[in-house]
Structure formats: C-alpha cells, structure tokens
Design brief:
Blueprint: E1 2-4, H1 8-20, E2 26-28, H2 31-38, E3 46-50, E4 52-53, E5 56-57, H3 58-66, E6 76-81, E7 97-100, H4 105-116
Helix pairs in contact: 2-3
Organism: Ancylobacter dichloromethanicus
Modified residues (4-aspartylphosphate): 50
Protein name: Response regulatory domain-containing protein
Length: 121
C-alpha cells in the first residue's frame, strides 16, 4: 500500500493503522515521491492519495498509477480530500473510491477489503 498526503500527520496515522492491520505500507508526503515509487517494481496493491498535494494535483499521482504496466492487476486507487463538492464521485477523479476528510480508517479499510474481494473485470 502506498499512502500519499502532504498532511504528514494524517499520512503517518493512516500508515500506522494499515500497518497494524497487516499491510506493508509506504508513506510519501510529496506527489513526486509517490510517482517515483509507483514507477518502481513491485506496484502497490492499493494507492491512497490526497487530491491536493502541495502544488501538485493528486490526479497526476493517479495518472502515474493508471499508467503502470498491465502485467498484474491495477492498484486500487483511493482519493482522500477535504476539498470536494458533495456531488463528486470517485469516477470524477479516475479513482475507485473517494473519501472526504476527516477519514475514518475503519470505513476506509472496509471499502478497500470489499473492493479487493471483487472478481477481476
């Protein structure tokens, strides 16, 4: 799992939560670092990224994840944000799930587990 959020405390709290749940987690607080990590093998199974990461739009991180070689299943992509209109949906950001801050780690974990149990399309 790769978590990218420029709110360092939130990123590390989510990292600790998912590590304690058995995930192997990497945390980045800059979009460039997340994009660099995505381009190295192996790709993470799940990407959690903020929509606004400093001067970079989180969509750039999502685009890097979507551009990964198709030699395995694509990562699940979760957008987390505090800056989204009520009418927004995950598909607006080419993500699989959209979570509005404040994040409930248990709800996020349940959404990830549910998504990962779906049969491949």
């Amino acid at each position: 799992m790769l978590i990218c959020d420029d709110e360092e405390e939130l990123a590390h709290e989510l990292g600790e939560y998912f590590t304690s749940a058995g995930w192997e987690v990497e945390v980045c607080i800059a979009a460039a670092a997340a994009i660099d990590r995505l381009q190295r093998f192996p790709a993470p199974q799940v990407l959690i990224t903020d929509l606004r990461i400093g001067p970079v739009d989180g969509r750039e991180v999502v685009a890097a994840a979507r551009a990964l070689p198709k030699d395995g299943p694509p990562p699940m992509i979760v957008i987390i944000t505090g800056h989204v209109m009520n009418s927004a949906v995950a598909a607006d950001f080419d993500s699989d799930t959209l979570c509005v801050k404040p994040i409930d780690p248990e709800e996020l974990s349940a959404a990830i587990e549910s998504f990962l149990r779906l049969p491949p399309t």
